[in-house]
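Q: My labmate handed me this sequence with no annotations at all. I'd like to see what the chain might look like in three dimensions before we decide whether it's worth expressing. Could you predict it?
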Amino acid sequence: MHSHAHKNNKQNFMRKLCPNFYREDGLETVLEVPIPEEMFASMGSNVALRWQNMATWMKAQTSDKWSSPAIARRYNELSFLLYFVGSPLIPLQVQLDHSINRPIKHSSIEASTAKYIVQQYIAATGGQAAINAVNSMCAIGQVKISASDFHQGDQSVKVSNTEEKGGFVLWQKNPGFWNLELLISGCKVISGSNGEISWRQSSNQQRPISKGPPRPLRRFLQGLDPRSTANLFIDAVCIGEKIINDEDCFILKLDANQALLEAQSGPKYEIIHHTVWGYFSQRSGLMVKFEDSRLLTVKTNKDDGDVFWETSMESVIEDYKYVDGVNIAHSGKTFVTVFRYGEQSANHKRELEESWKIEEVDFNIWGLNTEFFMPPSDFKEK
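A: Here is what I predict for the chain of 382 residues:
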């Protein structure tokens, strides 16, 4: 079995290895995820022993354990946070064959302006040659997520002080192939795309979630992957200007088309709309904020009518630094608001917040082939 960690002429930055907890046939060389020390403090005297204890503990969480109401509630909450805030997908396909330099003479003023703004963004993130030289990536980061309870009606929402801490490792090969392992407070989510399907699975859930065509992970569009961001917004329109953190910004807007929304809807739910906005600094050319909003309707069996879920996410993106000639954002915050409402049901509102920090980014990982991104056999679409 060959390791995916070796790279040409570069120091191997993978300091420790940990076993893959969920797949007996899984790779031995799954990266250590940087988890805050306090989470492990009581689990063993050294890191290797702690990982072993953690693995043993997680394997011991068999399905009968999940039936304990307290544990089930705790893990359902963590899974909700990990899916909703930690690993959301964007329903827009990034086309790498898009020509960034496509002619603009037949475009509207708003579309032409957007293309000029994207050109400035490409220059600000290192230029077309540097961006195109990247064919794969590994990023290691840490996250903190806090959440309020659901609040009924129009009551003010205070984000509680309970803060979940954890880390992630993210692999990508030419945007369509990616893999994310995200671990927070002992709950793990694995998400991935092999260019054909996307899937997600958490520690306490054996069945994968897989629906619709492959989509990019939102995390890539928070300043980590300039090529995908440029290819996404090349089809946008410029709708105006706004000041974000004292920066004059252009606003680019893009709506998911009906065919994409239908492809990702299911028998019991339907995505009504999904819109994304990028805020690009007029001074630096960099994207300083990424926002998206989705409206979903869930069909109920009752006579109550449908229930609507509206999710708004906005990410402030900061701390750009060059890595191998490409300007990558190394920290940021995402604010999430979830509204649930329906004809007969009480309205509920919830607010969540994530802050993240990228610790290491490396490009062009040697030996990272597409087989690395294949879903485990039990993840195949049924």
